Amino acid sequence: MFYYILRRLGQMVVMLLLISATTFAIFFAVPIDPARYTCGKNCTPTILEGNRKSLGYDQPVPVQYAKFVQGLATGRDFPDNAELRAAHPEQVVHCPAPCLGYSPLQSRTINEMVSEAWPVSISIALGAFVLWMLVGVSGGIIAALNRGKWPDRLVVGLGLIGYSLPTFFIGLILLTFVAIQWGVVPVPSFKPFLPNPFDWAINLILPWITLACIFAASYMRLTRAYMIETMSEDFIRTARAKGAGKWRVILRHGLRASLTPIVTAAGLDLGGLLGGAIITESVFSMHGLGFLAVNSVTTMDLPTIVAMVLIVATFVVMANLVVDILYGFIDPRVKVGA
């Protein structure tokens, strides 16, 4: 297992380098001067030339990428030009490792923007993940155990409704009625987890529900299908014949055997969400990684776009690694280290 994890970590690093190189080449190797997007409408040729030198855009693309990778490992100073740093030392901005770059439009390092945004996205994603897993898996089990009966039809119907409603619609309904009109919970805003975890949770409950609805509906259907298939297997009948209790058969044998595809889907979904729940953050005006990604695209903030692609890719690749490791604990038949 240890050598398998090391091998996968090495593969993860190679994959992230390939993703970053591809993204970097797409945005900075195209025949469009990236310096054009570093200032507003009042840009002059002098300002563009200065921005081009300070950000290193006057250098070959391979050199720019090498400095980007070096910044990830050891940090980086801006302006990128050594002469400009020597002439104006008071304007030097240090970006510690892993340095994701510098945004000329925001006049800040991307690390600073990400450090402000990631607690919001992490809080929303993890809370919604716990909620949809609890509701989705338990609902799927109930439906599978009552196949063809009214609980099954109720769960399938609720799942269909949740899967059909758009995320922004659910969020707007909850925000308008539950928070604003009825005042059941405060209007969502991000509060730090400490020193008051309850205040943190109550301010995020509506984003959690909004984001969890469509995923919970999907996991209800997924769990139901695999539980029905698993509960008809020979090893389930053997466990019952040996006198195992009902819930021991359901949870220890049936659910465990059904968890492999559920864990696969959960890992990929969570990895994508950690990169930013764009619609949910937009509905509730929360400035997380999703908001940062959308803002970088609308303003053509190329360094931030490259950084966001790398962040999302990192979360997805790490989620795949965790899923592969969990396989060995969920199903001993899976040879993880092979």
Describe it for me?
This protein is mainly alpha-helical and 338 residues long. The model has no long low-confidence stretch (mean pLDDT 88). It is elongated and about 80 Å long. The longest helix is centred in the middle third of the chain and has 36 residues, at 110-145. The protein contains 14 helices and four strands. A hairpin with a 4-residue loop joins β3 and β4. It has two domains: 1-111, no CATH class; 117-334, MetI-like (MetI-like fold). The strands form two sheets. Strands 1-2 form a two-stranded antiparallel ribbon. A two-stranded antiparallel ribbon has the order 3-4. InterPro entries: BPD_transp_1_N (IPR045621), MetI-like (IPR000515), MetI-like_sf (IPR035906).
Keywords:
338 residues, mainly alpha, MetI-like fold, 2 domains, 4 strands, 70% helix, membrane, cell membrane, MetI-like_sf, transmembrane
Main sheet makeup: 2 strands, antiparallel
Radius of gyration: 25 Å
Shape: elongated
How far apart are the termini?
9 Å
Strand content: under 5%
The number of helical runs is 14
Low-confidence stretches: none
* SSE order, one letter for each helix or strand: HHHEHEEEHHHHHHHHHH
CATH class of the largest domain: Mainly Alpha
Query: What structural class is derived from the secondary structure elements?
Result: mainly alpha
Strand order within the widest beta sheet: 1-2
Number of strands: 4
How many domains make up the coordinates?
2
- Would you give the CATH topology of the largest domain? MetI-like fold
Tell me the CATH superfamily of the largest domain.
Answer: MetI-like
The CATH architecture category of the largest domain equals Orthogonal Bundle
* Mean pLDDT score: 88
Please give the share of residues in helix: over 70%
